[in-house]
Amino acid sequence: MAPATLLNDRYFNPDPRQRELARSLYQEAAGLPLVCPHGHVDAGLFSDPAASLGSPADLLIIPDHYVTRMLHSQGIPPESLGVPAVDGAAVETDHRKIWRTFCENFHLFRATPSGGWLSLELSQVFGIDEKPSAGNADRLYDLIAEKLATPAFSPRALFERFNIEVLCTTDPATSTLEHHQAIRASGWGGRILPTFRPDAVINLDAPRWRDHLDRLEAASGVGIKDYAAYIRALEQRRVFFRSMGAVATDHAVLVPDTLVLDSIETETIFQRALRGEASAMEAARFTAHMLVEMARMSIEDGLVMQLHPGSLRNHNESVFRRFGPDVGADIPVRTEFTRALQPLLNKYGNDKRLTLVLFTLDESTYSRELAPLAGHYPALKLGPPWWFHDSPNGMRRYFDQVMETAGLYNTAGFNDDTRAFCSIPARHDVWRRVSADWVAGLVAHQIVDMEDSGEMMKELAIGLAKRAYRL
Fold this sequence. Notes:
This protein has helices at residues 16-30, 44-47, 56-60, 65-73, 95-104, 113-125, 137-148, 155-161, 178-186, 199-202, 209-220, 227-243, 263-274, 280-301, 317-323, 342-348, 365-374, 392-406, 424-444, 450-468; strands at residues 34-36, 164-168, 171-172, 192-193, 196-197, 248-253, 304-309, 311-312, 331-332, 356-358, 380-382. By secondary structure, it is of the alpha/beta class. The protein has two domains: 16-51 and 154-468, Alpha-Beta Barrel (TIM Barrel); 52-153, uronate isomerase, domain 2, chain A. It has a four-stranded parallel sheet with strand order 6-7-10-11, covered by helices on one side. A three-stranded parallel sheet has the order 1-2-4. The chain has a two-stranded parallel ribbon with strand order 3-5. Helix 17 links the parallel strand 10 and strand 11 (380-382). The longest helix is centred in the middle third of the chain and has 22 residues, at 280-301.
């Protein structure tokens, strides 16, 4: 059986001098704890000490849209992979069969970041150093399933084994955070923190906005009949999230437009939304205004504000109708930041109490807009290469296009942004290796010295993220 190829010097430059430096820098950082300030792992995994990660298909295939989107691109439909259907249609329930389909098509992940993560997961988490294939699918399934059934592979045990210092989840503004409360009540020492995500209630065109507003009213205890009450309800929820340890908010928008609307317009739009009459233009203006309001609240309560624009969600309408969101059909669009963010930055960009972490799927904005903005405004930090660019080449492009203008200390380090719990160490490993190679290149070109290189490596591995998110 062909062994998996995980070379010790993967992602390092082949030049012997730079490779030696990169290896040394990586070794200094490899054992540092993992700080995970933004992600989508379900807190429910950790609320029950006896919780299981399920089957190999549950763990590595069904919830991972990186995996299912690649297979879908080759004509393998989501239902054959066990992805739950929202329209009630039957989907494959034989997890061994799902696993076989994955293994038979593992070659599709060659030279992709997903392939690298999966290979490293299999090797370092499960001790499997061979490539999945049709021939070994059943044996690998049994090996993984056997281990997942043991206490050493419980979510809490793996959290400790992975050396995770802190893991932040992403939670709707209306959540009761019951799993976080259960974790706290259990006395377990793992640090799992919620993140406040209000998209469903501040984007007036969000699906079932009125239902989410009713939930906000119930969760906050504030009767929401006007805009002022709506703001009080949101502020109340932020207080609750902070009491549960939250350090950040998270906002996903198609475009990062910001506006400062007067009280008459905000009330007018809000009342129209309550009646189901708000237009698309009004909804866009309201969201743009609410981003400024969220910045104002962050200055007051200290929550770091994250902004993720530029993804056209649910591009494949038939897949969305059948399977709902987050199944791999989100596609990047061109994004403009300089003019879009100017109202917010003119109002709050010079206030050091605000930390606004920006992400983008439009790499053309790195050197033209984002790096110059972050290199000027005290409130701004640049998040790491995100989503489609969370890859060795994406990271290299980020370092090349951002760092000279923004400066290392105006970036926010790394976050894994994943739903796939066992991929967290693999994702951090790629970042640390590519970071080590970049810093080694600076030393090789005599841009920084060895003393600075060691400090830079520690910042990239852990320090920048801890500082940006106040962890």
